[in-house]
Structure formats: structure tokens, C-alpha cells
Design a protein that fits this description.
The structure is a single chain. The chain has eleven helices and no strands. The chain is mainly alpha-helical and about 400 residues long.
């Protein structure tokens, strides 16, 4: 594992050793910054430096021209074990985390599939509203016939409301505009939207925990990075001390350990991971918002459907009452007059809510699809979450 000091080509003599700050700064700036920003990582780094100094001092004091003493080797070995155990303890305290969550794809697919069911339900609602409007037209005609007959025909009472009763029979024959299939469809989409909302909230909670752990895992990575780096330095010094006794040579070996941009790479890696989590959360957040809005639309639709059914049942009761009792036509039609306007207004309001629900789900689908398209490709993200 040790690194040997080799003379660079085309140089007659070694270059002067750079000051420690010049050597460390380009390579360890990311790690040092992390230590300054994170007190817990700073404490680990301080303990690591103390253990490293102990091992290096042991090498300096106990080395001779031919070999290292057993005491020096023991100190170096204990330093390695101490550092490794520190990493293990830190990871155990931080607990294990999961990187990417492919289940988000299943949620997105479920959301988009359910949006199709919602739009189908909206079409079913439009059909029911069309039947309700048809019934509304029939009852309006019945009222017109009733006004004409009561004002223009004062003859035989059995023939007095013939056309009115005919329209009322057509009204009752049309039946409830909301079928059992409609209510079954409503219950299915409503139940599914609530279940989906629960799944989204649960997944968002887990994603939030991951985001909160990013700093912890960045700290763990820096700890591992620092441990490996220090281990490399110690091994280089040990090797140099064995093969070239002068301590100056050993220190030169320590200074020559190539670190590259590992520290920067670690932080950029965690930044990329954090960005991916945030992008995933944005998608979940959009789906949660869209699902919540649709649930509210469904609740409003349910309230209006219930209201419309109550009014319809009242009209139906009045119509049947008039049909079954000729002398009760007048009183029955008076009841119809009281409720017909409310019936018409409720149909229109329900129609507006049906249109709003359809627009909301269409807009929500568009938002999600745009977010998916804007996601980096699977090759850039490292997982084919959305484009498998």
C-alpha cells in the first residue's frame, strides 16, 4: 500500500518541499471545510489527528537505520484499529440508509393510472348529468302543461290534467339519473385516491428522513475518506522509514501521497444525491397536491349528488302522488314548483364541479408528466427510475 518517492524525470535535483498549507489546501479543502461546518465531524477529525500524531511520533522515536521497533509497529497497528472502529461506531450510530427508491416509479404509475379512472368517472358523471337535465326538461314541460290546462280547461276533471300527467309519467319512467354503477365507480375512485394519498404521505415522510440524513452521511463519507488518507500516509512513512532511515525522507514520503480530488468528489457525490432526493420529493409533492385537490373535488361532488338526489326524490314523490290521485294534481304540482328551481340550479353547480374535477386532474397529470420529462436520464441519475 505504501507509496515510494520517485524522482521526477528531467530534474537533476528534488524540488524544495512545499509548505504544509500548500500541500494540504488543494487536496483537503473540501474535507477541512466540512470539519469547520460540522462540529461532530470536527470532533472526529481532532481525535483522528491525535491518534495519527501518536503513531507518527512512535515511528520517529523508535525507528533506527534498519527496522522499526515492535513498539512502533504496535502503535501503528492500534492506530489503524482505532480509526476503523471509529468509522464502524459512527456508521452504527447513523444507522443504515437506502440510496435510490425505485418504488417512486410505482407511485407515479399508480397516480397516472388513477387519473385515467378519475377522468372516466367524470365522463360517467357527465352522462348522469345529461339524464338529470333530461328529467329537468320533462318536469319543466309538465309545469307548462299544468299551467295551460288549469287555466284553459275547466271541463271534466278526468281530462283536466291529461298532458300534465303524461309528462309526469315520462319523468318517473326516466328514473334516477344516478345509477348503481355510477355510485360504485365513485366509491372506487374515492377509496383509491385516499389510499394513494396515504402512500404518498408515507413515501414523502421516508424521503424527508433521507434528506435529513444527507449531512450525516456526508460526514460519514468524510470520516472514511480521512481515515483512508491518514492510513495511506502512515503506511508510506512506515515503508520510507524501513527503506530510507532519515526522517526527512519519511516526511517527504508523507507529503508525496497523491490524494487528487477525492474530497471534492465525495462532496459532489452527496450533492448529486441530495439533488436527486429533492427532485423525487418535488414529484411526490406534486402528486400529493394533485391527489388532495381531486379528493376535495370528489367530496364536493358527493355532497351535490346527495343534494340532487334528495330533490329528485321529492319531485318523484310529488309526481307519483299526482299520478295516483287525480284530485291531488294541483297540490302535487305546487310542490314541484317549489323544488324545480333548486333542482335546476344544483344540476348546473354539479356540472361546474364535474368540469373543475376534470380540469384539475388533467392539469395535475400535465405537471407530473412535465416533471418526469425534466428528470435527468437514467444514465445521469444512475438508476432507470423513470425510463426503464
Amino acid at each position: 500500500m505504501g507509496n515510494q518517492c520517485t524522482k521526477p524525470k528531467n530534474q537533476s535535483r528534488p524540488s524544495p518541499a512545499k509548505p504544509e498549507s500548500d500541500v494540504v489546501s488543494p487536496d483537503l479543502s473540501s474535507y477541512q471545510s466540512a470539519c469547520e461546518e460540522d462540529p461532530e465531524l470536527g470532533r472526529f477529525d481532532s481525535a483522528l489527528q491525535a491518534r495519527t500524531s501518536l503513531a507518527l511520533n512512535s515511528i520517529a522515536v523508535n525507528s533506527d537505520y534498519n527496522s522499526l521497533s515492535l513498539e512502533s509497529l504496535r502503535d501503528v497497528t492500534l492506530c489503524f484499529l482505532d480509526m476503523n472502529q471509529g468509522v464502524v461506531n459512527f456508521i452504527l450510530e447513523s444507522k443504515k440508509d437506502i440510496w435510490k427508491d425505485p418504488d417512486i416509479f410505482d407511485l407515479v404509475k399508480d397516480y397516472l393510472d388513477s387519473s385515467i379512472h378519475i377522468m372516466n368517472f367524470c365522463s360517467s358523471l357527465d352522462d348522469s348529468l345529461e339524464r338529470a337535465r333530461n328529467s329537468q326538461s320533462i318536469i319543466q314541460v309538465a309545469l307548462t302543461k299544468f299551467e295551460n290546462e288549469i287555466n284553459g280547461n275547466q271541463g271534466d276533471s278526468e281530462l283536466l290534467f291529461t298532458e300534465t300527467l303524461q309528462q309526469l309519467k315520462s319523468f318517473t319512467a326516466a328514473g334516477d339519473p344516478f345509477t348503481a354503477k355510477f355510485f360504485s365507480s365513485f366509491q372506487a375512485v374515492y377509496t383509491h385516491q385516499n389510499a394513494l394519498l396515504t402512500k404518498l404521505k408515507s413515501k414523502m415522510s421516508k424521503l424527508d428522513k433521507k434528506l435529513s440524513r444527507v449531512q450525516t452521511w456526508k460526514r460519514v463519507s468524510n470520516i472514511i475518506f480521512a481515515t483512508v488518507f491518514v492510513s495511506a500516509i502512515i503506511c508510506s512513512i512506515v515503508a520510507a522509514a524501513v527503506t530510507a532511515p532519515p526522517m526527512v525522507t519519511a516526511l517527504a514520503a508523507a507529503a508525496s501521497v497523491p490524494l487528487g480530488t477525492v474530497g471534492k468528489w465525495i462532496n459532489s457525490m452527496w450533492k448529486k444525491y441530495e439533488d436527486e432526493l429533492k427532485r423525487d420529493r418535488e414529484i411526490l409533492n406534486s402528486m400529493e397536491a394533485g391527489t388532495f385537490i381531486v379528493i376535495q373535488d370528489l367530496v364536493n361532488i358527493q355532497v351535490l349528488v346527495d343534494k340532487l338526489q334528495i330533490i329528485f326524490e321529492g319531485l318523484l314523490h310529488s309526481a307519483n302522488f299526482a299520478i295516483n290521485a287525480a284530485d291531488a294534481v294541483t297540490s302535487a304540482m305546487e310542490e314541484v314548483k317549489k323544488n324545480v328551481n333548486d333542482f335546476s340550479e344544483t344540476i348546473e353547480v354539479l356540472g361546474d364541479h364535474a368540469k373543475k374535477c376534470s380540469q384539475d386532474i388533467t392539469m395535475a397529470r400535465t405537471v407530473i408528466l412535465r416533471r418526469i420529462v425534466s428528470q435527468p436520464s437514467s444514465s445521469n441519475r444512475g438508476s432507470g427510475m423513470f425510463f426503464e
